[in-house]
Amino acid sequence: MTDRFVHLxxxxxxxxxxxxxxxxxxxxxxxxxxxxxxxxxxQNADYYSAPYLSPFYSPCISANCDHxxxxxxxxxxxxSPAFLILWIPAGLxxxxxxxxxxxYRAFLRLPPACAVRDAPKSYTGESAFPFVLQNAHRYxxxxxMLVLVFIWWxxxxxxxxxxxxxxxxxxxxxxxxxxxxxxYSLSCHxxxxxxxxxxxxxxxxxxxxxAWKVITQLNKKHREYGWASLISVGVADLYVRLLAMGIVRDxxxx
Length: 254
Known about the structure:
The chain is mostly helical.
């Protein structure tokens, strides 16, 4: 019995299912998105095809943008305008509670799966650098809400064609992307905390209570909204890019 116990104890886990599959898929998906986002950002071109603006470049705040949203930065900025914006949604996702779990398991193996031993021998939690920066999550949420306003503005402008009101395939792509990004942001744990996490009682606060209830329901699907919005952002940029490069033509539905 003792020999058998020692033999089993030497295993990292007693799980016999394919627990490695989930973190592997997460790692592949995140690496693929990061690689594409970095490539698209460095292109500094083909991000606007009237009336569509890629969400990677929204809002376009430098004067040398192909489509200037708000000219806050002068023409001295000669790098990709996406650098001025992407750090905000990137910071939101990196510090997101769900994504922490996802990439901690996929890349750091902290732990790689439930009931599986951590790979590192020591554990510091999020009290040491750089993990202590995760505490900035709520501030990235505030900034992302501002960016989200411009994402919706771009979705509205996607109905405005040179010949008047219309609906194209790109209109639907940008609109769906705006909806999914909104669901992801509103289902955020910090957003739920803002509505009611700091209250001892909802008595006398019916508006905050209703908002908290709605966000609590959305929060149950936060993981799904996170992946769906990540995919939609990439698809939206790719669609606008293909239009700008003349590889595909936009299908006018109305």
